[in-house]
Amino acid sequence: MTASRVDEPTLSIPWEGVRELFHSWSGKGDLFAGLAAVLRNDEFSRWTKRDVERRAHRVLFENCCESLQRMPVRVRDWLAIIPVHSQVSRVASPAPQGRIDWAATRRTGWPPREFVGRTRQRTSDEALLSALRWTVERMLLVYRDASFKDLRRKKPLVDEQLRVLDQLVERPELQQVAAVLPDSAVIKDVRRAGPKWRVVADLADLLRKEDGPDLIALAKAQIMPDEELASALFHLGVFGLVLTSLKAEGHRPVSLRPLYGGASGAAYELESAGQTWHLWFEAGGLWAKYGQVEPYVEATRGLQRPGQTKSPDIMLINEGSRRALIIECKYSKDYGYIRRGYSQALTYLTEARTTMIDVGAAFVVAPSEVVTTISTGRTVMGPVSFCGPELFKGAFRSAFAELRQ
């Protein structure tokens, strides 16, 4: 798998839905874990939160290359810009030290019982060095995570600059201070320290955004440019749109578990007209909950490599009235791939009608750039509709209202 180019046009993401999910997420760990939960659904994938972070660092590394190119390629050039201050201290010792104040020394008696003098101590600016150490260590981590083999074809090499950073971080000048995440005030101080420090400030500003509270900015900068991660982000956004649509109708979905972390079961529960509905995120566990085996698994049992349970991306089901809405998410510019969403959605609907529900409907949600209107095919199992995120909210509310009748 290769990272998509940062400067390529990217399909839109339903940010309204993403923001809905981010209300309950505290930082990048939640974002990376949520994306991993989507990507892990592929039976051939074993994504973890750390895998997503490494993939996001491929994009971040590309964004850092311009600043890296402007950095020194010799350690001594770095050492030359480290600001050093002199501090004069008064000392009294049994042996001469520094510049002796003979008048003060004479007052202690003669021969002198102690020598009074002044010493000069050179100290470095700790705040600047702490910011520099954090920036260098984070940049090297991003570099190690990034699969830069594919990036070299379109970015000037920065090997020399990175090699020097690897040496610089081991220098005593940096080892004597702790690496501290710089805030905006420190970044300003770093920028004012001199022309060469402005490059450090630019790089630190890029790197520190990953640890900031603005997950939308992080998603746009490091997730959206990568096609595979963007597909998972689209899935999360559509799930968020389901939540906003339910809330717009006056329902109050109650969270039952995180979307990630290996927890099983429905993600949300809501009450409507005295009935309980369960909202599933990656609904493969629904078959085990019912104590049944998915027909697809049964059909492929005789193969040398039998199939694993397939799960709708999103499913809202009422066990009592045996009704459900199924949503399949498709994020691509490939119309053939988008159209295959029909067979997937219809399969999920057919399998659900086999044992779990009596009435249902299915949606295939794709980016608005590839589906500009809503269209519905009616089958004996129920309607299957294609739509973009903007039209999905209204269509979902209408379908949900019809099922509740």
Secondary structure: elements and pairs:
Elements: H1 15-22, H2 28-39, H3 49-69, H4 75-81, E1 84-93, E2 99-100, H5 102-106, E3 115-124, H6 126-145, H7 159-168, H8 172-175, H9 184-192, H10 195-208, H11 215-223, H12 227-248, E4 254-255, E5 268-272, E6 275-281, H13 285-289, H14 295-299, E7 314-318, E8 323-329, H15 335-355, E9 359-365, E10 375-379, E11 382-387, H16 389-404
Parallel strand pairs: 8-9, 9-11
Antiparallel strand pairs: 1-3, 2-3, 4-5, 5-6, 6-7, 7-8, 10-11
Helix pairs in contact: 1-12, 2-3, 2-12, 3-6, 3-10, 6-7, 6-10, 9-10, 12-16
Describe the 3D structure.
- This protein is of the alpha+beta class and 405 residues long.
- It is built from 16 helices and 11 strands.
- It has helices at residues 15-22, 28-39, 49-69, 75-81, 102-106, 126-145, 159-168, 172-175, 184-192, 195-208, 215-223, 227-248, 285-289, 295-299, 335-355, 389-404; strands at 84-93, 99-100, 115-124, 254-255, 268-272, 275-281, 314-318, 323-329, 359-365, 375-379, 382-387.
- Strand 8, helix 15 (335-355) and strand 9 form a beta-alpha-beta unit.
- Helix 1 (15-22) packs across helix 12 (227-248), helix 6 (126-145) crosses helix 7 and helix 12 crosses helix 16 (389-404).
- The two termini are 47 Å apart.
